[in-house]
Amino acid sequence: MQLQRGSSQDGELHYHYSWHQQGQPVNFSFQLPEQSVHQHISSFRRYSPQLEHTLMRQALQQELGRQNIAGIQVELPPTGFPLPLKVTARHAADARVLQQQLTAHLQQARQDYLQRIYHTELTLKPNRRVIMIDHPRIVADALHDLLPVAAALQQKFPYTTTREISQFLLDWLQRIPYQELYDRNMSSAAGFLPPLQLIQQHRGDCDSKVVLMAALLRLLLPDVPLVIVYLPEHAIIGIGMQSQSSDQQLRLDGQNFVLADPTGPALQQVGEIAKHYQLYLQPGIVNYRKL
Predict the structure, then answer these.
(1) At 137, is the secondary structure helix, strand, or coil?
(2) Fewer CB within 10 Å: N-end or C-end of the chain?
(3) Which CATH fold would you assign to the domain 136-290?
(4) Contact assessment for residue 63 and residue 55, using Cβ atoms and an 8 Å cutoff
């Protein structure tokens, strides 16, 4: 795939993609405000356990200063998540109440940090607690900035089906250079790029491409159910549409989802998933999040 980029004096960034599909030339163009690209989901950051711990300790010290109860001692481990707390006071009842209050305060400080950087804490099967990027929230917050891309798609396909537009997005995204996903359990988000940054940098890992595809489908087809399906070191999208006999699909919460993988570089069709991932596509064991 060839990408031509340019900018105009009015602050618009121009993107023109061209490739061949089944021997036929394909072209796709759109413009994005340069300001939108620079400011897009600007508070997204990679998760840092060290920074999280520092912020929580600061929150704890501030709360202790506000409480100002005589005879209190609070012990924390030197590193790691500072729970459970060990609180001692002159009266055992005071210690119990204060421990509950401080624990709740620390948990809130932790949630505030995760929310600020677009992360969340989830339990993934089988019973694995992880901190990971809040993909549904990024999809929702990216919709406004992606309106020019969705408008270009709508103009290119004024009359189309869910499968046709999904296949076009696959054809486009699979050709964007792939960037490896780092270990999801490490929660580093080292390879993730929010949608406009993926477009600007012309690269992305599986999570990044799935989020961009999901956001554009949500704009173009607001009533179509969507899920992100998490596989070992991989992510794909499930689309609630009419299936074909050859489709790889998954039934979740009473809804059938046709699966698609925009990652690339393999050029796969809607409903086609690599065989080594199909083992994990079982309703009772697969991890997913609705969009």
Answers:
(1) helix
(2) N
(3) C8orf32 fold (3.10.620)
(4) no
